[in-house]
Design a protein that fits this description.
Length: about 425
């Protein structure tokens, strides 16, 4: 299968997704890794945008954004209705819900001190809630993304360096004003976690994350003078909690990859997923060409038009089937997305409606919207997502189809259908 790469020497232009974008960003997933590890290909595989791909380092300079769609069984099937999705898509009883991705330039050792594209790269990741570290599992690129003998590089080194760089970046931000912050905390009797939060809000790091990290390390919040030798540990803990890293063992289709993948799985504590971004792009492209029937996440495909495909592509598909889909269960891409949304972030799907008997909005669209919200979201918090005034003037919620009334503190359940009743018309 390693000759898949040959077929993709040139950049591909992909059709823009037909899916609609929603305005609210629920979570932003940053795609990171050294140059040429396959970040842009991964974004393309997820989103079918046309991020530029190349087999030379720093193909990407400016970040690419894309919307991927996570799958979840839709309530339309159980209710026996035909829906009219607006902010998402529904196909064969499966809802596809949007998640935002950001593909940035390659990260090289020393980036936090400005090497490569340095801090520009890191600054683009400020708002990311989770980082997907795309690794060249075949071990055929050095730390700077230059090609070396196949299998001669140890991908475990990539994992270590990336974590160190991200930590060094956050540490540099804190260190700049650390001494002043300490003085201020003791002179004005301010909790240090408060000042640290102020310093790190630009990185979308929440106060409770900082407080939990301080507790975990065993530091005393109102005496930062005792912190100096624990600062590194504290920053690593904050980073782990606020920007968890998931490892994508990419290029798993290459002959040298399996051995490295097994080694990584054994030695790393982090979540690690085998993937072939290139194979997924190929499968999706052929699916769009109507030559095969394939849905992202499937463990197989059906050839629909052998003639149009031609002999070479048919052979390639056979190898994708035996060496990737049968061996690993899928191309890995959709699993990673599901893992991030449903396991890491514990998201649930909620359907707001106006009419609880017909499941429609004001205009009569059946189950128009499906929102991803964190588990534990209350009816009132959800009302605020639909419209800020709805939360302020919240009266109660009505669940469909039961008609059960729920109060502001009701914790929403996966696949709840809810009408928000508020004083706002
Ligand atoms: N065999 C194989 N090749 C891949 C895979 N994913 C990406 N590639 C190839 O790896 C090379 C680099 O891909 P890019 O997606 O441009 O890598 P990048 O990480 O975005 O690179 P920079 O933007 O330069 O940092 C291209 O030749 C891709 O075709 C994969 O899953 N398998
Ligand atoms: Mg790129």
């Amino acid at each position: 299968m390693y000759y898949i790469a040959g077929l993709f020497k040139k950049c591909f232009l992909y059709k823009k997704s037909l899916f609609l974008e929603i305005t609210e960003i629920i979570m932003l997933v940053g795609i990171v890794g050294k140059p040429s590890c396959g970040k842009s290909t991964f974004l393309n595989a997820l989103t079918m945008v046309n991020a530029k791909v190349g087999d030379y380092p720093f193909t990407t300079v400016d970040p690419n954004r894309g919307t991927a769609y996570v799958r979840s069984p839709c309530v339309c099937k159980d209710l026996g209705v035909v829906d009219n999705p607006k902010n998402s898509l529904c196909k064969d009883g499966i809802r596809y819900l949007p998640v935002q991705f950001l593909d940035v330039a390659g990260l090289v050792p020393g980036a936090s001190e400005g090497r490569g594209l340095g801090n520009k790269f890191l600054d683009e990741l400020r708002q990311a809630d989770v980082l997907l570290h795309v690794v060249d599992t075949s071990g055929s690129l050095d730390a700077e993304g230059n090609q070396v003998d196949k299998g001669s590089w140890n991908p475990l080194d990539d994992v270590k360096f990336l974590e160190e760089e991200i930590d060094a970046w956050i540490k540099a931000i804190v260190s700049r004003d650390y001494a002043t912050m300490k003085k201020k905390a003791s002179a004005e009797k301010i909790r240090f976690s408060f000042l640290l939060h102020e310093k790190l809000t630009g990185l979308a790091i929440k106060k409770h994350t900082i407080e939990a990290s301080i507790r975990e390390i065993g530091l005393i919040d109102d005496d930062a003078n005792t912190w100096d030798d624990k600062l590194d540990d504290l920053i690593t803990t904050i980073r782990r909690k606020s920007k968890p890293i998931i490892i994508v063992a990419n290029k798993i289709d290459q002959p040298t990859s399996n051995k490295n993948f097994l080694r990584m799985k054994e030695e790393l504590n982090e979540d690690i997923f085998p993937a072939s971004a290139l194979a997924e792009v190929f499968l999706r492209t052929e699916q769009e060409n109507a030559t095969i029937s394939y849905s992202p996440g499937d463990s197989g495909f059906k050839i629909l038009n052998q003639e149009k495909l031609g002999e070479k592509k048919v052979q390639l598909l056979e190898r994708i089937n035996t060496d990737l889909l049968q061996k690993y269960g899928s191309s890995g891409i959709q699993e990673i997305l599901s893992h991030v949304v449903f396991n890491l972030f514990n998201m649930i799907v909620v359907f707001p409606v106006e009419d609880t008997t017909k499941f429609t909005d004001k205009s009569g669209n059946v189950l128009p919207d499906a929102y991803l919200v964190p588990q534990g979201t209350t009816a009132k918090e959800f009302a605020g997502k639909v419209h800020t005034d709805f939360a302020k003037n919240f009266i109660h919620g009505t669940l469909a189809p039961s008609g059960r009334r729920v109060g502001a503190d009701y914790e929403l359940q996966n696949n709840d259908i809810i009408k928000i009743v508020s004083a706002v018309k």
